[in-house]
Sequence to fold (319 residues):
Amino acid sequence: MSELRTSLLREKFVIEEIEDSEDGRRTLPITAMSNRIALSLISEDGTDNETFIVRTHNMHSCARLSAAITREFYERGSIVNRANPISWKTIWGNVIKGYEKNWNPEIWGAIYHKGRIIFDSGEHHPFLDIIEQCDAHNDQAYSQSVEFAEEAFEKAGKKVHINYDSNVALVVSCKEDEAKCGIIIRTPDGATTFNYTARPNDNSDAQIHAHTTLTVAAAFLEATQLAFKVGMLNRKQQYRLIEKYSDEDKQHGKAKNRLGNLNRAINNYENQFHVNYRPDRPTFQQMVNKAEDFATQALKPLIKQMIDEGALDDTDWIV
Fold:
């Protein structure tokens, strides 16, 4: 396996049209948001060299879809030159099956090769396609893609200004004898930042693979998100704000089960490899507890309103 280096960007584009007026007034702001990973894949002998751009609605799906693509390439060779085209629909279905498919109606994903979209599912903003075209047509100078996009709009007769904001959520470096991963996640009470290094374990036959590294990173990203969701729903259930057998009640149970499964998957990874964390590995239960504290404060206005409206008995509540 050739060394793989990549990162996940959380991106936000705000596109404003500039009217033909003396003050250059900007109107009609449009917002496009996405998570993006660029995969530069090179075979062991250097024969196959393919680059894919992965964009999705959330971070963990982006990492998980990137893992699936990476595995296809390193285990089965070239993806774009296959006699029998790859079934992107099947791969995407495996990525989002279960909790994601059932409880995230906004989920979407898109894959690009040389600026051309080769697969998409769900609804993503078409401006993202323009950015990828600009990137591909200008030697993949992604840092300048916004400028190129503004020029493209102007040539088409429309002047726009594009505000671009991004932050790195994941950095991955993987080679045959070592995998490194850095994760930076924004939470309501601040950022959670940690990194880990994994090396082969003498007591296990498991080998370092790029797709496994990305899959474990996806587990951390998803578990962090789910811990917040579980904490919020825990507190709502405690305050009797969730109706039994409702969709929210069902989601609560599924979210807790999913969080447990992700935690076990990470534990299994740690049993197969020498894994060192800096600082210590985040504890998902602690994240759940913090989310419960956040929910207590966030729900106070709703509880007060329900008491004022007589929907709740104020003698039952101390918040």
Summary: DSSP finds eight helices and nine strands in the chain. The radius of gyration is 23 Å. The chain has a mean pLDDT of 90. The helical segments are 59-76, 88-96, 99-103, 127-137, 145-155, 210-238, 247-272, 284-308.
